[in-house]
Amino acid sequence: MKHLFLLSFFLITNLIFSQKINVKGSWTLTLKASDISLAGYDYNSFYESSNKETTIDIKPVPSSKYNKKFMRFKVYVNKEDINWDKDLKLLAKVSSTSHGNSTGTIYQEITNYSNSFFETIGEQKKIPIQYRIEGLSVTLPAEDYSTEIIYTVLNI
Amino acid sequence: MKILTILLSLVVFVVKGQSNEASRYATFKLKEIALLNIEPSNTSVILNLESPKLPGEKMTTKAVNNTKWINFTSSLTNKSSSRNISIKIEDGEIPPGILLKIKTDSYQGNGKGKLGSNSNIITLSKKSQTIVSDIGGAYTGHGLYNGYKLTYLLDIDNYKLLNMDNSETLTISLTLTDF
User: Residue B42's domain spans which residues?
Assistant: First the structure.
């Protein structure tokens, strides 16, 4: 009984001091004959999205003045493939350093396992994310390749 | 016990109330592609028959720029069959007594993928003939020494029909087609 009480208290404490994430913007890239510079060549070795293809909002819960300013967060990223090829490599970076972050500004691969992406502090709006895809080739079957990019935020 | 129930209800409430995970999608749409190029592209093949130096000897062929390289990029869906490269005389007539042949060497270069396989020497005509078959998703590399090397050859079929003052210009077409 005592243990159950403590466990519940621990869970509540952790969850009350929680956070909320909101993500906007998916990346779609279409490659066709006009993307090949000359017959005999493959596609480019990589393509990049716009520097704010996805934006992330992070909101502390409860949304007190203190939390909005000082609560620290860590964002994790992973992907769940819908139709993917092992030769494709998807990378992401935070294309800004003005969102309470000093990490995540160098491209890192998004894998099927959750990896630490960046850390930030306080409430943040429109953290810009840029993507890069490597491995697209005419040697792959011509079809749609798609993956779901999952962002998870935890307070630290 | 009552307190525990309240606490557990609070946990459920808090869990339901927060969303610390969100997702978006990345999608890459690759379209079918069929691009073909001949290198060098700015030179004509010139083939001349020259008289023998001594009576009784065979006539000789003098060729200028008689080699070309086929470069291609091909992208196919899984449902598509493979592609071929075919060749034919589009315009013009071969002078009487002469055969125009083409030799296709096996692939070489910096390309990758299902690059197909070459045919043997064929005699060109106005009928389309396959010189490279079974091409899938592939790229040959661009420029000279990438792809399939073509060599144009003249062969005398019938000496009686030869007219040494004759000259003809032919247009040869190559097509990358779905099989």
Answer: 32-178
